[in-house]
Amino acid sequence: MAESELRRGFCPGVWAPMESGDGLIVRVRVPRGRLAARQLRGMARAARSFGNGIVELTRRASLQLRGASWASLPDLQANLRGLGLAEASPEQEKLPTLLVCPLAGLDPRSPHLEPLAGGLRRVLAGSRGVSNASEKLLVLLSGGSDLLDDVPADIRVELRAERPGLALLSVAGTRQDSSALGTCSERDVPEAVQRLLAVLAQTAGEQLRMREVVATRGTAVLWAALEGLLVDRRAAPPAWTGSYLGFHSELRNWFGVELPFGSGTAEDWDALAELADHFGTGELRLLPTRAVLVPGVREADREALLERARGRHFIVERPQPSLRLVACSGAPACRSAHADTRHLATELAGLLQGGMRQSATLHVSGCEKSCAWTGVADITLVHGADGCRLGFGANVAQTSTQTALSVAAVRERLSMNLGPSA
Question: What does pTM read for this prediction?
């Protein structure tokens, strides 16, 4: 097995695919998390022709095609380039990713983000000098909702409608655990990001992210780099709740669906492209929660949208209380996994849902790498080579330190309702 397959943090791409149990994984970085229906339809066609037809939505709002081969890879790469879903070279693919909140321009609580997104794209396109940066380097632009809270970002920029013209900056982590730097003028954000990337470029090491800068050099070096730009050093106020499933009527109407485990067949993705073309404006927006938004839908089409989505077994609403399931690809698709994680998650959900008194998240990981979810879950199950570890209110790393259990013991414990609602 190649070293890159086991290295935590390796990020497969179009030009650097990763071998797995079902063939090559080719990950497509969707610019800003937005794509057109024609692009999605073309990608689904490529997934059928050059892979096994499975396409997954990742926790960084990227799309990954599974089951490609080294023989089919050149044709797949050419198809993705023709669709505008692949960079022209491996060097360009390593540039930092920009993720923009999908509710911008839809929810009135989110300020308009596109002008600033354009400025940030230009900065990132010119960041080739940061040669020591990890291929996973991520700049996140938020409008203040909680939809991107659990995405670990290297640089997080947040605009708030109640503070027009200002931007909150933080680095190295999720919204909850990142290091707050303070506030600057919105017009100075591109320069601020450029300065922060320059600090990264001056830090010793390879495959670096901002967390290494904070760990080795502290935040003082970042504050010094931003001298003259920061207005104050206040942290961000609490996020507002951004709902997205089902039909929403706001600044623009939109319809949101979630794919079970973020995974679908080429036919599922074709169906989403059809929803966007037939009922919306032909645009789709991807969420790191493994959901897809279709903007520009009509109130009169609400029931037709629900019927079409339910017909494909998409998730369009959550009962209360609800159990959200998160699981990696699992065995046999992934060589590192020790279990069919999605089957196990579905089975365990059946044991839990009857006795639930509050909404919760169940995360099942097939190994200790935490590919599907890095954050804390109400219930986390890590299936290692020597058995299962069970954690409550813990992430994969914390859960991995627990005593090994058999799957039968896990079933027994959960059936006794010894979870977060007990």
Answer: 0.86
